[in-house]
Amino acid sequence: MPPQPTHTEFPPNTPVARFTRPLAQFLAVESAGGVVLLICAVVALAVANSPFGPAYEHFWHTPVLLDIGGFRLGGELGHFVVNDVLMTIFFFVVGLEIKREVVSGELRDARKAALPVAAAVGGMVVPAGIYLAFQGGTPAARGWGVPMATDIAFVVGVMALLGRRVPFGLKITILSLAIADDIGAVVVIAAFYSGGLAWGHLGLAALGFALIYGLNRAGVRAVPVYFMVGAGIWLAVYKSGVHPTVAGVLLGLLTPASAWVGDKTLVEVLQDALARAPGDGDERFDTLRAVGYAAREGVSPLARLEHALHPWVGFVIMPVFALANAGVAVRLAAMADPVAVAVAAGLFLGKPVGIVLFGWLAVRAGLANLPTGVNWKLMAGGGALGGIGFTMSLFVANLAFDDDSHLVAAKVGILVGSTASALLGAALLIAAERAGQRPSPLK
């Protein structure tokens, strides 16, 4: 018997299909990337807690230096190359995802966006409040931003493992919530986890962004030009005291979301090419070049870049980040450290409480509606999954803490809180699905 179509399959060439097709590709990469991320995190933990642990930690502290005519740029392998350079590409893709959702996704419509945005706000405010309830007034209070984040890849990976137990409406809501959460994380990083500002370098970065905007408006399509300007912006932001990953997000938001060649023009070029004889020499070359240009520019730069970079982020950059940052020598005493307890409580308790509470308030106020097929039991399960902070939480922890003992404790709290959140979320979603299958006692 042939497989039956699922609720996410739609007739081709319809508006719904044009929206769900890239979303399905996004979810496929995220779910597979989440599995790879988990494997790398386990490997890092295993090695860090083995006899090879000291050598493993020493490797990520290897100095890396670029020296050109007296101009020097560099740092440690784990901090500079991974957290500053590679993670800028990660945040660039985050910027692309945010713009896609704002332009054509769930965040485009104010009423549809109200639920995930309100839930995201609650999922940031309540965990930060719980952390400060534990650590307010102490030197570790600076880590209040650590439990605010949600790891999209891990959350999508868990939902993929649960399969049909997670309704499509809940997947869209949690995905949109995580993207709104990313916006909040970027604002927090820029506002609270940057150093002293060098206004001259910030001015140069602003000029670079203005140049990018002008090049877009002028129709310049040469990728190397944008790469060179983007690299200059990254360097200016890096030198300014603002964390350079913020530059990645802003560059993603500046990427055009519309194709240079419209559907009508693309069809005309293809029809003209088909109507011509194949020809030889220059005529054949000109025809094929026109077709190639139209085909390439018939896809928006945003979609083209996201399609090209997303697998690299999911299968290379994030796993390398996990290998560099999740390798923590876990000691039982570290699990009882007040910082670890505060982070774990913020993720495990604060995330589901904040997400469900603020989402309920938005629905109660008439600002939003629950998606079709989603109830509050399912939202509670999705909110618990939001407590999987991992990548973003580890990243913020590295920015928040200079003291190694606090950083190690925060990482332990992230690992414990994220693991417990994944287990709780899966259990709640399975229980909600089973409850929905039981016959009503009134029948």
Describe it for me?
This protein is an all-alpha fold. The chain has two domains: 26-194 and 315-437, Na+/H+ antiporter like domain (Na+/H+ antiporter like fold), CATH 1.20.1530.10; 196-242. The protein is 72% helix and 3% strand. It has helices at 15-48, 53-60, 77-104, 110-135, 152-162, 168-192, 199-218, 223-240, 245-254, 263-275, 281-297, 301-325, 332-335, 338-364, 376-385, 390-400, 404-437; strands spanning 63-68, 71-76. The chain has a two-stranded antiparallel sheet. A hairpin with a 2-residue loop joins β1 and β2 (71-76). α4 (110-135) packs across α6 (168-192), α8 (223-240) packs antiparallel against α9 (245-254) and α15 runs antiparallel to α17. The longest helix is centred in the N-terminal third of the chain and has 34 residues, at 15-48. It is globular and about 75 Å long. The chain starts with 14 loop residues before the first helix and ends in a 6-residue tail after the last helix. 42% of the residues are buried. Mean pLDDT is 86; it is low at 1-20.
